[in-house]
# Entry
Amino acid sequence: MNRQDALALDAADPLAPLRHQFTLPEGVLYLDGNSLGVLPAATAARVQQVVAEEWGQGLIRSWNSAGWITLPQRVGDKIGRLIGAQPGETVVADSTSVNLFKVLSAALSIVQAASSTRRVILSERSNFPTDLYIAESLARERGFELVLADADALPGLLDDRTAVLMLTHVNYRTGRMHDMAAVTTAAHAAGALAVWDLAHSAGAVPVDLHGAGADFAVGCGYKYLNGGPGAPAFVWVHPRHASAFQQPLAGWMGHAAPFAFTPGYRPAPGIARYLCGTPPLLSMAALECGVDTVLAAEPLGGMGALRAKSLALTRLFADEVAARCPQLALASPADDALRGSQVCLTCPGQTELAYPVVQALIGRGVIGDFRAGDPSHPADALDILRFGFTPLYLRYVDAFDAAVHLQQVLDSGEWRRPEFNRRHAVT
Ligand SMILES: Cc1ncc(COP(=O)(O)O)c(C=O)c1O
# Structure
């Protein structure tokens, strides 16, 4: 592949117009949409409208007149279209960590209500730490045990002690993707419930929660959904569970009649009981703009078309890196079916290169990120250079140019400069 080939792919790309929905800084190749999505062009005006008109002029009347009170459901239903949920099954609320606490608690309550002796929450050792921290603390509180294993060992560990299998669909470090339908079926066959974290899936890969028979799901608004820094998260519960069990954060927004102001808690029917406190309206308005940028792909083939382009971008980048940077190794699956929307690389002989190389790339305006290895586990010991590919706004030529920059940073030794070796708080 040469640069002209990449440009020709862009010229023939039916999804190319979707890039105009975003405000991208000049001279930046942004390969970190898996961490913080790009600002949609519509967001600033929409937030300004909410501030000036709905808040400034409408004041408290806007809870009714501007539909603020149903915004968690409205935006939730839009996200639902991206994850195989039916209307009325998804709400936007809180953070992914808090929503995971709610759904995991509800799942443990289901197990306990069945008088089951199952006491294991099973998860992946390299799951995102917040998921493991939440599960660990809940397990301690509720008399369960958190058991961790590598992805390949998980099916063999599902047994009559397993209460819940809790996984992130696409691994944050490697981009490796579980087969949600097969894994959920295996969990159910063993008598366990399946809880999915879709942080790196929603808006990135096709997800079919109903098709997979999943029990619970949560996910982030600020990554591939482009909702902005700290955007609220979402939560989905299968209708077979939603009204059957309470989640523990019994706030007034999840009450059946919040404005009756009665002293006793009565959970709202369905997914609304997963709300807790007052929704952050400005952030919700920004999130809706972000979700709309993904839904704009629906007439062009939707998540299927985005997935095809994402795979083509990650394949192009991985192939170019393999040809240009012999020092680096692919840490993401080479098999398309197993790879999410990111490419992760390691420096096998010199793991200490990963951080300064990422910093040197950022110095050139090529923004990816760095994730530290876990020295206590040989399989994950190496530091990772992580590059997210968001097909909504990335071009083939961006993937090509990023690989060329990476080669230049390595070949020139630019990464040795002291400023690229200084650790920042956020990596
Ligand atoms: C898989 C996964 N789950 C959860 C989170 C964190 O979610 P929050 O900060 O909204 O609690 C992240 C953040 O990167 C993540 O990658």
